[in-house]
């Protein structure tokens, strides 16, 4: 009985440690998307007022996961869009850990993705729809605000059955605040 109580207490402490060591916020809502290339990152993150020329191109509101080839890539005899697409959102940064890290966790994006915090490129991933993480701590600190513009440029790959027919896509994302110190 005493041994079982010690094991249960140890498991409880472990669970508490993991819940305290990292906070995670899903980022599936509040995204905007444009299905073309931009002149540069500034066009994705610049401030604008509705109705002004800076609102062009027109961004479509989307939730993640999202595929910009969901329909055209699977229609026989149709030339599907093979250019890049851009996603953007505003991140609210609330890291309760002094000197902790801020991570963007992607559950998939394909086939090549560039990640930006404001105008600073913070990471790039090449490959299919596997999970990957980008540390954005330094870029957030350089921006100097808790409201941080974030953008991603996604380049689709070839449409094959292996890619599920959706080569231009972004999977679910999450923002993590970690008590871990930089290595």
Globally, the shape reads globular
> How are the strands ordered across the major sheet?
3-2-5-11-8-9
Q: How large a portion of the residues is in β-strands, by DSSP E?
A: 25-35%
Helical segment tally?
Answer: 3
| Intertermini distance | 42 Å
The third-level CATH topology is Jelly Rolls
What is the level-2 CATH architecture name? Sandwich
Which percent range fits the helix content?
10-25%
Reading the helices and strands in chain order gives HEEHEEEEEEEEHEEE
Q: Main beta sheet, described?
A: 6 strands, antiparallel
Q: Cα-atom Rg, whole angstroms?
A: 20 Å
Structure write-up:
With 183 residues, this protein is of the alpha+beta class. It has a single domain, classed as Galactose-binding domain-like (Jelly Rolls, Sandwich). It has three helices and 13 strands, in the order H-E-E-H-E-E-E-E-E-E-E-E-H-E-E-E. A six-stranded antiparallel β-sheet has the order 3-2-5-11-8-9. The longest helix has 20 residues, at 2-21.
Précis, in short:
The chain has helices spanning 2-21, 42-45, 137-143; strands at residues 22-26, 31-34, 60-62, 66-67, 85-92, 101-106, 109-110, 112-117, 120-126, 132-135, 147-155, 169-170, 173-178.
How are the elements arranged and paired?
Elements: H1 2-21, E1 22-26, E2 31-34, H2 42-45, E3 60-62, E4 66-67, E5 85-92, E6 101-106, E7 109-110, E8 112-117, E9 120-126, E10 132-135, H3 137-143, E11 147-155, E12 169-170, E13 173-178
Antiparallel strand pairs: 1-13, 2-3, 2-5, 4-12, 5-11, 6-10, 6-13, 7-12, 8-9, 8-11
């Amino acid at each position: 009985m005493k041994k079982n109580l010690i094991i249960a207490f140890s498991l409880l402490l472990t669970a508490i440690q993991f819940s305290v060591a990292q906070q995670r916020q899903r980022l599936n809502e509040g995204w905007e998307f444009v299905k073309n290339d931009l002149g540069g990152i500034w066009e994705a993150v610049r401030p604008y007022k509705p109705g002004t020329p800076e609102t062009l191109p027109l961004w479509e509101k989307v939730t993640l996961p999202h595929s910009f080839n969901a329909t055209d890539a699977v229609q026989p005899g149709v030339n599907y869009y093979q250019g890049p697409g851009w996603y953007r959102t505003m991140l609210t940064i609330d890291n309760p850990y002094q000197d902790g890290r801020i991570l963007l966790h992607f559950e998939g994006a394909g086939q090549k993705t560039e990640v930006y915090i404001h105008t600073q490129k913070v990471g790039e991933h090449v490959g299919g729809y596997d999970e990957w993480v980008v540390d954005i701590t330094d870029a957030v600190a350089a921006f100097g605000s808790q409201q941080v513009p974030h953008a991603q440029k996604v380049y689709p790959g070839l449409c094959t059955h292996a890619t599920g027919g959706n080569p231009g896509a972004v999977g679910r994302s999450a923002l993590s605040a970690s008590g871990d110190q930089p290595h």
